[in-house]
């Protein structure tokens, strides 16, 4: 993916400075800076107050936050919630948002960043389609929760009968689910790439028995496996992103490509985390060392918006449905 080098440098600097000054948690000061720089709604249309960029730039912005170890619901805000509002022609202000897809009882579990957002874009089933409503978090029943790295994953309940809402087709919700899945793949890839960088640096600088760890064949094999798995995860994710962007999320094999990416990302996380902690040894298990910020994040994110097993099953089902005659076309698109 090609993104302007100066833009990438600026993105990295913003999150690195915040991490050094304020720590890993994104607060109001970071959101204010992102708005000032035009990064809070990077992909929003200029007519609605966005910056008019695309998913490639957003992917780089997402990766920059991961690399710096900053926890922020920026993808949910820009790529999901604000995108939905623009899709139905609803106004978008500077409030931070996330998305909750409610069930028929008006409840959604493990909603990312709901307790930290100003507003939640609600979706709920309605006569074969969906309704959408943008509401303040103060009007919802939110039960706080968190994933293993402390990011909010909350339960949200709403009285949908009291909400008017705007009609949304099931196709839009299907695209929302694919976008959500791809966001997590992008985040895991950034965590795996950073883990690889840390492992290479550690193996090159740390000495044991009078020579660098990188000189030991066992360490070389483990680092090589980390590099191979991280590369496979990144390659399949970039292929899925390219298919999505080039087709405006309408490619006939897009769900298959995203399923392949999520499957590869999920299995890569296991190998990368295992090998990285073996390379680092005891030092990599300490709270003081930053390795866990990336390995635990990769394990947390890989199971969100679909488990690894569920994505494996989607790949298998798609391949079987395509059959011997259609499998190549399914893969190449």
Instruction: Report Rg.
Output: 21 Å
- State the domain count: 3
Strand order of the largest sheet: 1-3-4-7
- Secondary structure: helix percent: 55-70%
Main sheet specs: 4 strands, mixed
- Strand tally is 9
Order of helices and strands: HHHHEEEEEEEHEEHHHH
> What is the highest CATH level, the class of the largest domain?
Mainly Alpha
Name the poorly predicted regions: none
Mean pLDDT: 95
The secondary-structure class comes to: alpha+beta
Number of helices: 9
The CATH architecture category of the largest domain equals Up-down Bundle
Estimated share of beta-strand residues: 5-15%
**N-end to C-end Cα span:** 19 Å
Shape: globular
CATH names the topology of the largest domain as: Butyryl-CoA Dehydrogenase, subunit A, domain 3
CATH superfamily of the largest domain: Butyryl-CoA Dehydrogenase, subunit A, domain 3
